[in-house]
Amino acid sequence: MSSAGIHSPTATGTSNSMADSEHPRLILHDFLSPDLCKGFTYKSIDLQELEFIHKSCSTIGYRENVFSTTLSHLIATNSPHLILPFLPIREKLKEKVEEFFGCEYELFIEFTGLISWCKGASIGWHSDDNRPYLKQRDYAAVCYLNSYGVDFNGGLFHFQDGNPATFVPMAGDVLIYTADTRNVHSVEEITNGERLTLTLWFTRDKSHDEDVKLISSLTKHPCNSSDTYSKPYLPFPASQNMYWFPSEESLKYQSGFDIRCGRLHVLGYQFCCKDARVKSSMDFSDILLEPLHLVKGNDLFDKEFSNILHLLQVVQFYHWKGPTELKRSEFKMEAMNVVQVSMSQREEIRLLKVESLKDEDLAEVIFNGGGSVEHDWVSFCDVVDLWEAYTSNLWDNLVFRLPDWIANQSIFYE
Ligand SMILES: O=C(O)CCC(=O)C(=O)O
Ligand SMILES: [Fe+2]
């Protein structure tokens, strides 16, 4: 394997003795450099791209105050094309783990997911194979997508024995370790911010190969059919309870908040339904599945998004691309349909907010909101087109690759 693209890694314990040691582990600094995937035809890796995917697609995670985005969830919500940005790094990591532990071509990826930990999340001493249903896990690779002291506080990683005892998560670093009791570890409580990782587990057991399961879903998915229809790539939400925080409130929705609405809220956005509660009898969770308009202050963006996930994806895309970085197009005010919110719409927006954000202070604490976020409608307009181009390009790319994946029962990039 060529190491081109692995940006001046300062590896701890690259020698074999470390892989064979009492605590086999490896730290790679700056592994996820922008150069990582230079050789790939798709594009260079962008940590913010994975952040964009997580902030627009995540659901409630497996632990308190944790959110996750798995590849199978992306397929289930009609965003199978969003697995593509994971693939270059997923492949590089697998090669690295196999190389370090001397098991080339023996491993399968068991799980790939974006995982974020918010204020209050922590985990005590454990090994990653410490449940009967996790016994197949042999190795873990955790890629840190943002940084301690910058994006979050708390969240230091500790190994119970051996060195290093503490690891300070910084964007671009990777931690690789065995999933057994030779690497018992913990993560300190997050005190503020959102700590984001791309986490993979590897197994020698083929029956736990994630690719086989993903390909089975992709085979049945519309992206594998020749019926073409317009905009096949619009996301479709999973069930409402998967988006309600905290999850124990999701049976009654009396306190807490919908995480998609929470994410919009901390960026200063609201939304309303096209036909002001035609649907007055409708439940807020059904309205989130209806065509929606984006609202900021008194401005209503007069373009319909097909549902709350579509709207959130475009908004997060805008914040990924950065309003200021976007080259301002010629002034195209007339093409930009921003109208003033009417009285009846104002009331509807308020009601929707009350129902979807029972506890807006909690949403602000969890998603670290409140700061001022840049926004202007001219660049937002451009982004709607850019999102469309980005998405349909990924979709075409997926459709092109899928037959080979199915034939090989393996998801690969190169
Ligand atoms: O995010 C990390 O640093 C490690 C998380 C962890 O220990 C786990 O998910 O099992
Ligand atoms: Fe762990």
Task: Provide the descriptors you would attach to this structure in a database record.
414 residues, alpha+beta, Jelly Rolls, nine-stranded antiparallel β-sheet, four-stranded antiparallel β-sheet, 19 strands, globular, disordered N terminus, binds 2-oxoglutaric acid, binds fe (ii) ion, oxidoreductase, repeat, procollagen-proline 3-dioxygenase, L-ascorbic acid binding
Report on the structure:
GO terms for molecular function: iron ion binding; L-ascorbic acid binding; procollagen-proline 3-dioxygenase activity. Keywords: Dioxygenase, Iron, Metal-binding, Oxidoreductase, Repeat. Residues 96-204 form the Fe2OG dioxygenase domain. Its cofactor is L-ascorbate; Fe cation. The two termini are 13 Å apart. It is built from 11 helices and 19 strands. Mean pLDDT is 89; it is low at 1-9 and 37-44. The radius of gyration is 22 Å and the shape is globular. The protein has 414 residues and is of the alpha+beta class. A hairpin with a 2-residue loop joins strand 17 and strand 18. 2-oxoglutaric acid binds next to strand 12.
CATH fold naming of the largest domain: Jelly Rolls
H/E element sequence: EHEHEEHHEEEEEEEEEHEEHEHEEHEHHH
Overall spatial form: globular
| Bound molecule kinds, no repeats | 2-oxoglutaric acid, fe (ii) ion
Percentage of β-strand residues: 15-25%
Mean of all residue-level pLDDT scores: 89
The main sheet comes to: 9 strands, antiparallel
Topology, number of strands: 19
Judging by the overall fold, what is the CATH architecture of the largest domain? Sandwich
Question: What's the level 1 CATH class of the largest domain?
Answer: Mainly Beta
Q: Count of DSSP helices?
A: 11
Give the N-terminus to C-terminus distance in angstroms.
Answer: 13 Å
Please give the domain count.
2
Indicate the percent of residues in helices.
25-40%
Residue stretches low in confidence (pLDDT < 50, at least 5 long) are 1-9, 37-44
Radius of gyration: 22 Å
